Structures are given as structure tokens and as C-alpha cells.
Amino acid sequence: MATLTRNTLRLTSIGDGDGMMINPADRTAGFAELYEAGLDQLLADAGHLLIRGFDPGVEEFNELVRRYSSRTTLDPARTFHGDAAQKVDSGHDPIGLHLENGATPFAPDLLWFHCVKAARSGSETTVCDGFRVWDALSERSRELFTAQPVKYTRNVPKEMWQRLAAHLAGGGLHPAQMEVSSLYALANDGADATFTEEADGSLTYTYTVYVAHPTRWSTRTAWANSLLGPSFNYEAPEIRFADGSPIPDAVIAEYSEVTEAVTEEIAWQDGDIVLIDNSRVMHGRRAITDPDRTILNAQSYARS
Questions:
Q1: If exposure means fewest CB atoms within 10 Å of the residue's CB, which of 25, 60, 93, 228 is most exposed?
Q2: Model confidence band, residue 75 (pLDDT cutoffs 50, 70, 90)
Q3: Yes or no: is domain 3-130+264-302 CATH 3.60.130.10?
Q4: Burial of 160 (0-12, 13-18, 19+ CB in 10 A)
């Protein structure tokens, strides 16, 4: 375990991968130190950061997100706590590894968590570095995922897609003002997506994307996607290769085994913040055994 001190912050490697924990090095270190700590540069190396020992409030968490973000996005099924944070509410079952909004053309660069109240048992958040997965996959699987992208197809209720579109558009627009055509301009740059409005106002979209790809801060390939991801508040997407063929069962079994082998757990403490590179590191959750826990989440785009 490597540890170094930068000004009034202590940086310590955690787990078997590149993850890093940031603690106050002494009593002079306050939460505001993180505003100028270069978290984005640290994240580029670490993939995920655990910030512990500062005991921030919800508004301080919101301010930290704002300082490092050009803009925020949301999960339209969740409620806000401030202008960036939303309460995580995804039932009590385990949640598979995924990129936040990774099955959509609206995935953020940065994923933030703030533990307001830690669980007394279980409920650990899981993280899995896509660099490590790609290095461990067989040559056959690498060739398969390099040859063509996958396609996600899903239907989303009207009130949800309009709420997301209004937030991304900004300017105080009401969700009812949003039209399906608006989504093409609001999707991430270069996203290969189509949007179709159904008779009931719901949206059916397709999103085609490579599941192994360079990351926001690196040209190195990461197997980072939402093939194993959840659909708690939404219809489960249909996932196939872009040519319409299914992903072979043997390949699904392989990447399920490989990801679990390199998955690490974050055992939350009150006040913890976790920052994740959402283009590289997938996350999930073990089963919730203490429903009294409170975790907030924020999604944002990095400053250029």
C-alpha cells in the first residue's frame, strides 16, 4: 500500500487496482482543500477515488460536484437533494456492474456518491476497472467485441424522457415543452442513437456503442459498459450485437466471471464521497441488508 502527502491531503492506494483514498493529512485540512486538489487529474490515474475523513454536508457535496463539472445530468426516476445530488433508490437486491446511463447516449463523464448514513451491514458499492477486465478477457472475446458494437433498445415513459431532456437543455424549460427531436442535439457528441416517439408519448430508442473503448482520459482500451447493468426503474433493454446477433452464452459466462474476479467493494462510512471515471470503471452494489442507509448520487460532465 503506497501513501504520499500532497499539501494537507494524504493519498493512499486501495485495493488491488489503481484506486486511491484521499484523507486529511492533519487538522488543518478542511473540505475546501478538495476544491483545488486536482481531483480530475488524480481520477485519470486512479479510475476511482474514495474521499474519507472530511465529514461534508449535502450542500458541500453539491458544491464539490459543481466545482469539477461543466454541467450535471440526472436520473429522471430519482429525487433531488440540492441542485446536483439525487437520492439513490434502487430497491434492495444486488445491482450488476454498469456504467451510469451506459445503456443510453447520455452517459456522464463523472459519477459521484455521498454517504450521508452508512449501512450497519452489507450494502457495499462495487467497482470494477475496465482496464483490468480487458486485460483478463480471452483473445476470442476481445476479437468479438472489437469486431462490432452492441445495440441497446429500450422504451422509456414520456414523463421520464421529457424530464431528462429539459434538464439537459437548461434555460428553465418545462419538461412538457420537450420534443423527441430535441434529443439528437442533447445526446453525447458522436453518439449513434435513434429516437422514436410512440403513440402513447413514450420513447423507443436504440443506442449503438462499442463495449470496449478508449476512456475519457486515456487511449487505453477499457471493457466498460452496461451489459450486466440494472433496470430497476426502467424496462430492461434488449441487448444484441449491431448486426442483430445475440452475444454467445459462453462469452456472457466469461465476462461475468472475469468482472467478478477483479471487482472490489467499498464499505461505506458516514461522510464518504466516491468519485468514479464513468468511462472506465463500472459500479454496482451488493444486496442491501440495512435499508436505513442513505446514499446520494450525482452525475456530471468534466470541465474541458
A1: 93
A2: confident
A3: yes
A4: middle
